[in-house]
């Protein structure tokens, strides 16, 4: 063993893809899983339980936005306990605030996610049903706590080899009081564009839990065809793709839009008829199409 290796072992540090993980002595044998804007994820052996876990290393203090997202996710997930929501088993950090640079979040290890799965295989009707059931079960729990997830998409739905599904990434989530009007307080730029409800883009009155229902509708459509339903290249393209499927909004639908410019823009567009879901997904289970019909309506009050 080299001097450097022995120093790393002494300090309970392991290197993963050039990043140092200070998570020993409990967590050992780290392997790289992946990384995103907010940090790197590695798998590790928990020497206490003898199970492998996922450890997310986050360096949130470089940017205020990262800091807010990390704190928001930790606050929400430490309160949640549900089979279909990713858990936090432990948070590892420096003992003093002065030394605190990185945070390590230990969670159960899930082998893949729905995004990766849909890239590689077609789902059976049974799999679609089982995954959708778990998504809605988790979402019911989230919404019962008056939380909006605001970023539901296939890559935020983790899966293991026994088809258990867990919703993750609560960095954009918001606690919402149903008795309060949130107009003007909920930011417009949320959710990956393809899964974003039209009212978010059009700045309608303070949006509600129905934005997550829209995202689930988009995910269901993607499970049926292995293709995103509304893969917009930009803001206007996204809106046009949505209207080409769900049709032009009615007078009643337009009442939801308080932004005058957005309403005028919608009125100025040529009329677009609604597409039958059976034409878009000819081989799909009629019950799945009925659910798409109910989830992907322009008017959030009718979802």
From TrEMBL:
PROSITE patterns: MAPK, PROTEIN_KINASE_ATP, PROTEIN_KINASE_DOM, PROTEIN_KINASE_ST
Keywords for this protein: Apoptosis, ATP-binding, Cell cycle, Cytoplasm, Cytoskeleton, Kinase, Magnesium, Nucleotide-binding, Phosphoprotein, Serine/threonine-protein kinase, Transferase
Co-factor requirement: Mg(2+)
Tagged with keyword DNA damage: no
Record-stated family: Belongs to the protein kinase superfamily. CMGC Ser/Thr protein kinase family. MAP kinase subfamily. Belongs to the protein kinase superfamily. Ser/Thr protein kinase family. MAP kinase subfamily.
Binding site for ATP: 57
Compartments, record wording: Cytoplasm, Cytoskeleton, Microtubule organizing center, Centrosome; Cytoplasm, Cytoskeleton, Spindle
Keyword Nucleotide-binding (UniProt): yes
Annotated GO MF terms: ATP binding; MAP kinase activity; protein serine kinase activity
UniProt catalytic activity: L-seryl-[protein] + ATP = O-phospho-L-seryl-[protein] + ADP + H(+); L-threonyl-[protein] + ATP = O-phospho-L-threonyl-[protein] + ADP + H(+)
Name used for this protein in its record: Mitogen-activated protein kinase
Domain of life of the native organism: Eukaryota
UniProt GO cellular component terms: centrosome; cytoplasm; spindle
UniProt EC number: 2.7.11.24
GO biological-process terms attached to the record: apoptotic process
Pfam families linked to this entry: Pkinase
Gene3D superfamilies, per database record: Phosphorylase Kinase, domain 1, Transferase(Phosphotransferase) domain 1
Protein kinase domain sequence ranges: 27-303
Principal subcellular localization: cytoplasm
Organism: Ancylostoma caninum
Activity regulation note: Activated by threonine and tyrosine phosphorylation.
């Amino acid at each position: 063993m080299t001097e450097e290796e022995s120093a790393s072992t002494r300090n309970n540090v392991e290197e993963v893809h050039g990043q140092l993980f200070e998570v020993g002595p409990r967590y050992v044998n780290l392997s790289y899983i992946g990384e995103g804007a907010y940090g790197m994820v590695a798998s590790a052996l928990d020497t206490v339980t003898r199970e492998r876990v996922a450890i997310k290393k986050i360096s949130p203090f470089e940017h205020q936005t990262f800091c807010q997202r990390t704190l928001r996710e930790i606050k929400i997930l430490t309160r949640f306990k549900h089979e279909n929501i990713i858990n936090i088993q432990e948070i590892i950090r420096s003992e003093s605030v002065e030394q605190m640079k990185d945070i390590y979040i230990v969670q159960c290890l899930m082998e893949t996610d729905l995004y990766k799965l849909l890239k590689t295989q077609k789902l059976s009707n049974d799999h679609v049903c089982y995954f959708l059931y778990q998504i809605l079960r988790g979402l019911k729990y989230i919404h019962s706590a008056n939380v909006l997830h605001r970023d539901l998409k296939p890559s935020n739905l983790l899966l293991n080899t026994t088809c258990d599904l867990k919703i993750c990434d609560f960095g954009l989530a918001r606690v919402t009081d149903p008795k309060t009007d949130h107009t003007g307080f909920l930011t417009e730029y949320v959710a990956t564009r393809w899964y974003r409800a039209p009212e978010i883009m059009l700045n309608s009155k303070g949006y509600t839990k129905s934005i997550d229902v829209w995202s689930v509708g988009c995910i269901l459509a993607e499970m049926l065809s292995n293709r995103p339903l509304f893969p917009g290249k930009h803001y206007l393209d996204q809106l046009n793709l949505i209207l080409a499927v769900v049709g032009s909004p009615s007078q009643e639908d337009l009442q939801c839009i308080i932004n005058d410019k957005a309403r005028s823009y919608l009125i100025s567009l040529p009329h677009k008829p609604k597409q039958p879901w059976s034409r878009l997904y000819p081989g799909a289970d009629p019950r799945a199409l009925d659910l798409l019909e109910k989830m992907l309506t322009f008017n959030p009050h009718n979802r």
